[in-house]
Amino acid sequence: MACRKYAALGAVAALSLLTWPLSAQAADQPNEAAGDSDLVTLDLYNLTDVHGHIEQEVNPKTHVVDHAGAAAMGCYLKKVRAENPNSQFTLLGDNIGASTFTSGILNDNPTVAALNQLKPLASTLGNHELDDGTAVFKHRVDGADGYEKLGFPYLALNVEGLGSYLGDYKIWQSPAGVKVAFIGAIADDVQAKVSPGLLDDLTFKPPLDMINQTAKELKDSGKADVVIVMLDDDTQNNYPKMGRYVDGLMGGDTHVPYTFTAVKGAEGNTLSAIASGSYMDNLADLQLTVNKQTKKVESSKAVLIPAAEVAKCGEDAAIKAIVDKAVAESKEAGDKVVATGVTSSFLRGVFAQSASEAPVAGSNRGVESSLGDLVADVMRDQIRVAPNQPVDIGIINAGGLRDDLMPNAAGQVTYKQVFQVLPFTNDVGYVTLKGADVKQMLEEQWKTHLTTQNSRPMLKLGLSSNVSYTYDPARPYGQRITSVTVNGQPLDPAKSYTVGSVVFLLAGGDSFDSLKKGGTPRLTTGLDRDLLGTYLANHAGVAPRPTKASVGVTLPTQPVKDGDTVTVALRGLSFTEGPAKSTTVSATLGGQAASADVDNTLVEPHNSDETSIITTDGSGQATLKVKVAVGNRCDGHAGQAVSVPLTVSSNLGELVKADTGLGVQVTCAAAADGTGGAGGTEGAGGTEGTAGSNTHHAQHQGKLSKTGTSAGYALALALALTALGG
């Protein structure tokens, strides 16, 4: 995955694309009324989401530098600072945590030491700085208890509880005399991103109003001529919310690189915004031309400098020594082979913001992935409620998977690799849930209802291979799961199921509150990454699943007639990564199959909001026109509605089985003598109340989730509703 992929990211959004020619011209041609001596150009460099990636990494296929590494970054920053003394460098948070093996195995001390050498003015607080709680963060600031001392301050004006260990902003006066304030803040959803209860001593306030008010105060008081906001959250979502006192935005957290030049803020103001991406794949540069007399920003633009360009500088000797020492100290443990005979790669979900962009590995946490499936199977296989009794269901959160798993040519997997897949050192265990709670857990995968600061519309759970489900993306939040099967049987809402995973998730992490109903997780032996190594060692030749466990289906909402042709909208038929793509799909409703080609596009311009498709459902969309055939199901049910089951298959295998309980309701013709059932409903097994259910859905038609298609709601089958407690 070459870093050249970011060359197209100079204009990520349509708005940025439209404004780029004008804004670039404005940046190159300052206000003619100002004399050259009154103008100064500031280069404000930034890195976000380093996550311990201090080693330089080269793409094995393209031989292009993907991640510059700390030593090359140090060389480049020295060079550009010498070229323009009115330059400054900051960090945007998540510098540590979920790190590479080299850094993580050494408590991220090498990363702190290397970043100190880059001489950042300050860093925003990221949620991963708090992975081990507030006490460890304080130890890092103080350089106590074996932790490398931080050489720069952390900022987050909307966080209470850390006292002097955290600042609100940092003011820098450039050599030319321009006073620049860097305001630090973090999204207010941090509590959902760390182990529940870990940060109960902290308060995270909504940051946007605080940011805009602080920016006003800094300028009104004369403390700052220029205000730059460093917000640990999605850049694309937040630049339109910046008020008129904000001159630039640096964002991060989502690992997506962005450049927005001369775009509009919340009050008609113009600003530029940027995010470097992650892992030192780019260096961000906000370039501002400032009039020293008027204290105004004349023009600005956002520029990304790819890792390959940074690497041309060479390497800073002092930083290289830090990195080399860390590599040597971790090598023996990391090179240990934990499994052989692993011939397949297991990858995380991806998406692309435009057709010209190469997808970033692991950028899509809203989809089922081959790696998520694998680790969920590990949880079910390795976590036991008794010596010979595995848990009923294995699950894993997409955010817990931090690297793809790719064995070497000899089929070997090392300890370093399993560490980098699961770097959080999580304990494992299980909870016991009712079937209704399991269904609710699946409903909680959608996240846009939680907070305006949430920049990932869905966080998909990996599920063990004995579990499958269907969902309707057109339904309101909380009503989207339409069928669930466990071991081939419909989920029983009253039955107890044991669910195994990492303790972070079982305790309600990533806002999966339904898992808390299982009480305190019962711990079992081992760490998550050790279980992965053991599973791979015991399952030589394990391969990714060819078909998805979860499929989106939207069906008609009202009863139809025998012989009607209805629209069946399908979503998420394919994995976004790997070779297993559904290219054709067929569906039946009691009669002849209808077929269609599958659209496997990865392009999703709305990746961080509720209108998304690829980052909530994945690739593989199709719409079919299917003819309904009731067959003999109406025998003895004249004038009533009966259920006709849906089946769906792709070129790779069966996706929805007839006994899943999903289908359409068909109104049977009335008997010739006018007799027959009056208003009743009969499905598989016969269920009352479907008419009332249809009324319920009709009441919500004005409140369709924006993640849905334009097709109508699926009719909830009587059997499915009963089985799911719906």
Terminal Cα span: 44 Å
What fraction strand?
Answer: 25-35%
Return Rg in Å. 27 Å
Which consecutive residue ranges, at least 5 long each, have pLDDT under 50? 1-33, 674-726
User: Count of DSSP helices?
Assistant: 16
Helix share, percent: 10-25%
- Order of strands across the widest beta sheet? 8-9-11-12-14-13
The SS-based structural class is alpha+beta
Q: Give the strand tally.
A: 39
Shape: globular
Mean pLDDT: 88
Biggest sheet descriptor: 6 strands, mixed
Can you describe this structure in just a few lines?
The protein has 726 residues and is an alpha+beta fold. Helix content is 21%, strand content 26%.
Textual characterization of the structure:
The chain has 16 helices and 39 strands. It starts with 13 loop residues before the first helix and ends with a helix. Helix content is 21%, strand content 26%. The strands form 11 sheets. A 6-stranded mixed β-sheet has the order 8-9-11-12-14-13. With 726 residues, the chain is an alpha+beta fold. Helix 4 runs antiparallel to helix 9 (317-334).
